[in-house]
Every structure is written in C-alpha cells, then in structure tokens.
Amino acid sequence: MKLSILDQAPIAKGHTAKEALDASIELAQLADRLGYKRYWVAEHHDLDGLASPAPDILLGIIGSQTERIRLGSGAVLLPNYKPYNVAERYHMLATLFPGRIDLGIGRAPGGSAEVSIALAGNFLEKVKNMPKLLDELLHFINCDFPEENMFAKIAATPIPESAPIPWLLGTSEKSAYLAAEKGLPYVFGHFMSDADGPAIVKSYFDNSTTNKAKAIVTVTVVCAETTEEAEKIAQSNLHWKVLQAKGEGKNGVPSIEEIEQYQYTNEEIQMIDKLKQNQIIGNPQHVKEELKNLQQRYDVDELMIVTITHSYEARKRSYELLAELF
Fold it and tell me: How many domains, in total, are found in the chain?
C-alpha cells in the first residue's frame, strides 16, 4: 500500500499563519525522508484556521526543500480561475521540479459565496461549465489544441519536459463519471463524504475510458503510541468541527487544555460520534488494520492521509508511525 499526504495547512490556536506554513514545509520535508508517495496542498479561501489559499506558491517553496516526493494541489478549484493561468503555474512548477508535479482539480468554491464572487464573478455559471473548463485546461497542459481553435497559437509557457499529471478530485458519482469520461485518475474524499464511497470509486473504474484508470482515497487518520493518546490528540480537530458548526473556532485548531474545560451537549456528543465514524484513530496496530480494511473496501493501492492536530509535533509523529507501519 502506498501512502500520501494531504495538507490543509491548519493554524493551531495560539500560533500564527506563518508558523502553520512553516510547519507544513517541515512536514513535507519529513514526508520526503520517510518515503511518502505524494504531498498535496489544499486550497481554501477566507477560512479562519487554514493558511493556504494558493497551493502553487507553497508547493514552489516545498519543492525547493525536498528531493523526490511528488507535489500537487488538492485541489485547484478550477471554477475560480481561467484554465490558461492554471496551466502556466503548474507548467512552471513542473519545469522547476521535473517529474514530480501533480495537478489535482476540483470544482468546490473553497469559501463563502462572497469569496466566490470576489475570485470568479459568477461562480455557479462556471461550475456548470466545469467540463468545458476542464477540457480547456487539459489542452493547455498537453499542448494539443486542434489547429482550428483560437488557442492553438499560444502555449502555457514554460513547457516542461514532463507535464504535470492531472487528477480529478470529488465526493460524488458526478465527479467520478467526469473523471472516467475524461480519462483522468480520480481522488475520492472519504474524509469529507457520507456517500457510498466504495460504490462511487467502483463506478469510476467501471466507466473509465482508459486502461490506465487509477484512484486514491483520502482519509483522516490520527495515530499515536497508545489508543488513549490518539483519542486525546484527535479531540482537537473533532472539537474544532463542533465549534465551526456553531460559527465559532475562528482562532484555529483548539488545544487539549481548552477542550478539557468544555461541556458538550448531547447533540454535540452525537456529532462527534458521527465524525469519528469516518476517521481512523488509534494505536499503530489498530490504524494498520483499519487502513488495510479501507484499502480492501475501495480496492485501491494508494491512500492519502489528512491529519489535523493542535500540536504540530503530534501531527509529525502520527505520520512517522504510519511510515513505520507501511
């Protein structure tokens, strides 16, 4: 089983965005040394507690401080941009870091309705045009516009020796069908979906137009030396979700000490229990068994791990333990 990392650049409460981004760079360097397959950075806008609205900028820094790990966006939210601009940026990265760049593509807004308007104007109209935007981006990436197309005369320079590899990300059958139709590899966000993930990924493979179909499944994992410690560490992100549901939590991922002073309502306890059903939390042996079970359910050979904790050191240790397991 191959393991990769999805980083949302979380800001721990009491820390700054600069410290969060520095922690992301350190984690990428660690992942490079530990043998992880990929390090992808998510895109979010005007979301308190997350520090990366521009994955390509952070990837450029990470690329200069790592040696072999593949780097990518998880994802570029395509309706926010012109495809040509995205192609230029990822061609630039692929030129700087040959054979190491992935271009994850999504269609979510990544922020509020106001943010979408500020970024893209009529976002909903662009979402409707997602297949067309995707086609245009792929033509720019592959430099293969038909001669009669007005864009055939231009190129998204610099042209790298090895083009970035496009992936489509999603959590629904619609995204799976689009990936299959376009012949793209697919990433399913198990960590953020209540849908029947295994059925969606199976539909991707069943409908794929290429024999090179590939899928990755992204899952939340917190691993520590003991189950008790893992459960305690995981409370930071779970509690943050509770706060966010109430319109709070704007200062970032809360500390364990803060959580210990909090009195949960029955509804909040139920919410946490539901969240935990989609996460893998525990000691190394338990996590190993659960990851293998998840791999078998989805029938994939690569899992992408997202881990959010208040302690950046606990996050690094979780990834170290996973690397030892696999």
Answer: 1
